[in-house]
Amino acid sequence: MTLISQKSDHSKFIKSEAKRLGFLSCGISKAGFLEEEAPRLEKWLNNNYHGQMTYMENNFDKRLDPTLLVDDAKSVVSLLLNYYPSEMQNEESFKISKYAYGQDYHFVIKEKLKEFLHSINENIGEVSGRAFVDSAPVLDKAWAAKSGLGWRGKNSNLLTQKVGSFYFIAELIIDLDLEYDHATTDHCGSCTACIDACPTQAIVAPYVVDGSKCISYFTIELKENIPYEMKGQFDDWMFGCDTCQDVCPWNRFSKPHSEPLFNTNQDLLSFTKKDWEEITEETFRAVFKNSPIKRTKYEGLKRNITFLKSTF
């Protein structure tokens, strides 16, 4: 096999491989310290917007500098993978965030990234690096924005004009010099749809989300009982929340994904509120065997359902 040479060709190859593997888009940034993000992250942590997500306090330096995660890192390859479903839940049901309709994205994306790294080594030569899917101290939205894949919206999600925001973000951090992309411009304008629609007023200022007020935090991250004062504010969300994305005008351009492993679990589609209330642990384990919903465990999901239907 003839190895590819030159920075420009390497970059073109990486972007074509990303497309072949089913990624929505690919952008490349020069690895280095994220100067603008440092004070923003520090302020967010000081305001305790991470709540009980204490892991956010760890590895502060590594979150800001990928060269501390990968020796001699030169480039951050940011990737988007669409998860927007073609079928939606029964309207008379407790709601689940769309990213959890299919199989757990961590496993799906990690397999793709493993193949990606192998392909880079086969075609370019020996390249060292690591793959990341939101389970390591990497500021994925910051890197995706830096590489021109979108801009950080007022709901703090990455937004793109062509496809909205219903996608996962992943990275390859590698020790290979490449051609770098440039950040795009902000297209939120004067729109405040996400801020106005947030059921718990978690978007405390444009571009700032108090994670400890977010429905996703309460229904997934929080391990203890949901505070009484949140009663009546969850709009039937029992796992995650998509409200700020659902109302975003740019998501009018969302198109259904083409990843078979993200195809909607048919049981999930047909479940009514009564079905959820009566779900047994055995059914939970069988139906959500490879689902992100497993993260709450059976007891956590029952806690969320009980909170939604209680009248205390």
Automatic annotation (TrEMBL):
Subcellular location as annotated: Cytoplasm
Alphabetical UniProt keywords: 4Fe-4S, Cobalamin, Cobalt, Cytoplasm, Iron, Iron-sulfur, Metal-binding, Oxidoreductase, Queuosine biosynthesis, tRNA processing
Residues at which cob(II)alamin binds: R63, D134, N155, L158, I169, S216, C241, D242
Record text on cofactor binding: Binds 2 [4Fe-4S] clusters per monomer.
Enzyme class: oxidoreductase
EC code: 1.17.99.6
Sequence positions that bind tRNA: K223
Annotated NCBIfam families: tRNA epoxyqueuosine(34) reductase QueG
Protein name: Epoxyqueuosine reductase
Name of the coding gene: queG
